[in-house]
Amino acid sequence: MAKESASHLKGQHVLLCVGGGIAAYKSLELVRRLRDAGAEVQVAMTAGAQQFVTPLSFQALSGHPARTTLWDSAAEASMGHIELARWADRIVIAPATADLLAKLAHGFADDLVSTLCLATTAPITVAPAMNHRMWLHPATQANLATLRARNVQVIGPEDGPLAEGESGPGRLSEPEAIVASLAPVAEALPTTTPGALHGLKVVVSAGPTYEDLDPVRYLGNRSSGKMGFAVADSARRRGAEVVLVSGPVHLPTPAGVTRVDVRSAAQMREAVFAAFPADIYIGAAAVADYTPRAPATNKIKKSNESLALDLVRTPDILSEVAAQTQGLKLVVGFAAETENVAGYARGKLVAKHLDLIVANRVGVADGGFESDQNAMTAYWQEGERVFTPGAKTRLADELIDLIVERLDA
After folding, report:
1. Distance from C-alpha of 9 to C-alpha of 39, rounded to nearest angstrom
2. Is residue 178 domain-shared with residue 208, that is, in the same domain?
3. Same domain for 14 and 135?
4. If both were cysteines, with which of 49, 179, 209, 224 could 45 make a disulfide (CB 3.0 to 4.6 Å apart)?
């Protein structure tokens, strides 16, 4: 699959920079995946990376000696680090440690990897990996915001078990997913200007809602919130004032975004309308369609062979927003479907009186709720746009580009 989805890497010079973390071992497989996709790969390693993996291993897999220091007299006789920076069509940093992200954000150049990144004009992609507390720390998130503002592509990290026995966001994305997510160089930069939404207020809803059955159990869905959070971050980077209304998720708040956490559909509706007036509403949340009529005050005990639940419809937030008259310029909905995606999406576009709807198929591999990848199509009354499948962060940028276009339509 990586070969098919990363055909744009064929013939490209990829400089893989390896940071010092236990996830460095995955970078060996990443070299193999990049070469399978047709790229020529050279490797540069930090001192920390060499504590986990040997340069000889990367040399064997890449076919080139791994570079490890600025102080290689043979290589630097002809300013080798500058030559390597010029050679690269793109730079991929995996794993990108918290220390490396900080160096990149603040322009440090005190070792080979940071110097190469400062000396290149090639697009840079980082695949972070670290302890979840380090990832969620405001300093790390601020550094990421700085890098994203410079059009650095960020892939991952994933949520799951970590090397130290804990669990949370911080796992390096799998090599195949990194290769599949690498944005084509020609498409790496947003097509709209950084300030395209300056002076506008954008409200984004994201994640699932949980409808309590009793103090222990709830009805929910598998939405991770990743797409909505990426959209909120992209809108903020284009200059918008952004309010993000989030259901229960384990994601860091994008820098500069005002976040409101909710649990139920009723709470989400209240928070969304409390955030108005606004110019744009993007309903990316997977809001529950039904909620228990009367949640039990005590835990429901196991007794009979079957259990019937009395459920009632929740408010249709998207339809209510589209019907209100508080000066919204654009209302954007999302449709997660398992079949007849185009038909159901266009039906919702008309029935809910939306300006734009974004549809994707869920329940498939390499896309949907829990993945870092997605494949989606946007529909409006006069047309549609199919987005190239890839990382949700890139797709969020492309969606905001489309929203800016539709504002002027």
Report:
1. 5
2. no
3. yes
4. 49
Do the bridges between strand 211-212 and strand 218-219 make them parallel or antiparallel, or are there none, so unpaired?
Answer: antiparallel
Counting beta carbons within 10 angstroms of the beta carbon of residue 55, is it exposed (0 to 12), middle (13 to 18) or buried (19 or more)? middle
Q: What is the pLDDT of residues 23-38, one digit of tens each?
A: 999 999 999 999 999 9
- State the CATH number of the domain containing residue 246: 3.40.50.10300
CA distance 284 to 305: 37
Range of 315's domain?
201-295+306-407
Comparing C-alpha atoms, which of 27, 116, 33 is closest to residue 68?
Answer: 116
- What is the set of active-site residues? 221
Is 44 within 8 Å of 93 (Cβ atoms)?
no
CA angle 283, 286, 292 (to 5 degrees): 125
- CA distances 156 to 28, 118, 230, Å, are 18, 22, 11
Residue with tokens 């966001």: 169
Q: Is residue 193 part of a domain?
A: no
Query: What is the amino acid identity at position 229?
Result: F
Q: 312 lies in a domain?
A: yes
- Would you list which residues are annotated within the binding site for CTP? 289, 299, 315-318, 334, 348, 352
Helices 112-119 and 98-106: crossing angle in degrees, nearest 10, is: 40
Q: What is the mean pLDDT of the chain?
A: 88
Residues flagged as binding site: 289, 299, 315-318, 334, 348, 352
The pTM for the full model equals: 0.61
pLDDT digits (tens, 9 = 90+) for 220-260: 888 999 999 999 999 998 899 999 999 999 888 888 899 99
